[in-house]
């Protein structure tokens, strides 16, 4: 049964010391996007990326990207494009230069794309044995790329020039690593979808450690996460159709939204991002839309 009240959980932290926990928050539904600039509909979007002024959808079912202009209360489609080298985009992130990084779900390669639709090339990933199988990735505050390699049971860290920086090992109890996020301080979070658990590592550590107890009552199948650096981690619960708020120590802080079709509800959400000014965007896959929320003051 999913908890319906805000609670504070006692966390057990090993090896890593996360940022200070913030109090629980509530989310207010914002505008949604279902169409491109020509009136075409989104189809099963699996990825979303944010800046303070732009939201990009990985319109997976249509094999393309759709760019929206983000206003205070508006989400306006500006352009859309396809990239032949990235026909099935599933995870997307913005880097510090205003370019898009996208993971193709078929080739498992990460490509770099301009918001004008210009393809900038495939991002090289450290090929040291075992050959990496990329599940997801994140961009750190210093521009480093954090690649979740499920074949090697690790997070590969590369700098903006593509040079290997370090590896962060995943422990055996991280059974199904689904996503990775890095907060503004450089703290690394890894999400275990099947184990319903958060793992973390401080900057410079060589392995992630479990944060808190498994959240099996609160997460049905965790699909994606984002960390804001204020002691809050936002996780989309794909099978449960909601957003679960965690403390940076892995403790349960509350649940927002739920399964449904109407405003503020989600159906099998697959990805989440933060816009840097208190806004959240979610790839609401089975509702064929991008949903947004605002963190209530």
Reconstruct the topology from this structure.
Elements: E1 27-33, E2 47-50, E3 54-59, E4 64-70, E5 75-81, E6 89-94, E7 100-104, E8 110-113, E9 119-122, E10 134-139, E11 145-149, E12 154-158, E13 164-169, E14 177-182, E15 188-192, E16 197-201, E17 209-211, E18 222-227, E19 232-237, E20 242-247, E21 252-256, E22 271-274, E23 279-284, E24 289-295
Antiparallel strand pairs: 1-24, 2-3, 3-4, 4-5, 6-7, 7-8, 8-9, 10-11, 11-12, 12-13, 14-15, 15-16, 16-17, 18-19, 19-20, 20-21, 22-23, 23-24
Radius of gyration: 18 Å
> What proportion strand?
35-45%
Oligomer: single chain
Q: How is the largest sheet built, in terms of strand order?
A: 1-24-23-22
The largest β sheet comes out as: 4 strands, antiparallel
Chain-averaged pLDDT: 90
Please, what is the CATH homologous superfamily?
TolB, C-terminal domain
How would you characterize this protein structure?
A hairpin with a 4-residue loop joins strand 19 and strand 20 (about 240-245). The protein has about 300 residues and is mainly β. The chain has one domain (about 25-295): TolB, C-terminal domain (Neuraminidase). The strands form 6 sheets. Strands 1-24-23-22 form a 4-stranded antiparallel beta sheet, with no helix packed on it. The protein contains no helices and 24 strands.
How would you sum up this structure in a few lines?
The protein is an all-beta fold and about 300 residues long. The chain has strands at about 25-35, 45-50, 55-60, 65-70, 75-80, 90-95, 100-105, 110-115, 120, 135-140, 145-150, 155-160, 165-170, 175-180, 190, 195-200, 210, 220-225, 230-235, 240-245, 250-255, 270-275, 280-285, 290-295.
């Amino acid at each position: 049964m999913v908890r319906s009240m805000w609670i504070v959980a006692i966390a057990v932290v090993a090896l890593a010391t996360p940022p200070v926990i913030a109090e629980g928050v509530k989310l207010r539904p914002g505008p949604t996007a279902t169409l491109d600039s020509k009136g075409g509909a989104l189809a099963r979007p699996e990825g979303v990326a944010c800046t303070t002024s732009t939201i990009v959808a990985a319109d997976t079912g249509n094999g393309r990207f759709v760019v929206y202009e983000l206003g205070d209360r508006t989400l306006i489609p500006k352009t859309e494009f396809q990239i032949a080298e990235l026909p099935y985009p599933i995870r997307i992130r913005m880097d510090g230069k205003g370019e898009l990084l996208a993971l193709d779900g078929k080739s498992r390669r990460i490509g770099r794309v301009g918001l004008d639709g210009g393809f900038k090339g495939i991002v090289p990933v450290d090929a040291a044995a075992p050959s990496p199988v990329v599940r997801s990735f994140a961009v750190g505050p210093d521009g480093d790329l954090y690649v979740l390699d499920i074949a090697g049971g690790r997070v590969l860290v590369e700098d903006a020039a593509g040079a290997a920086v370090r590896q962060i090992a995943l422990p055996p109890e991280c059974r199904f690593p689904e996503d990775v996020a890095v907060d503004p301080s450089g703290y690394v979070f890894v999400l275990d979808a099947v184990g319903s658990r958060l793992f973390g590592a401080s900057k410079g550590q060589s392995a992630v450690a479990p944060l808190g107890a498994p959240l099996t009552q609160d997460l049905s199948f965790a699909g994606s996460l984002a960390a804001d650096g204020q002691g809050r981690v936002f996780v989309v619960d794909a099978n449960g159709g909601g957003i679960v708020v965690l403390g940076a120590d892995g403790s349960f802080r509350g649940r927002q939204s739920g399964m449904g079709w109407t405003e503020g509800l989600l159906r099998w959400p697959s990805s989440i991002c933060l816009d840097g000014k208190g806004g959240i965007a979610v790839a609401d896959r089975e509702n064929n839309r991008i949903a947004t929320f605002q963190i209530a003051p």
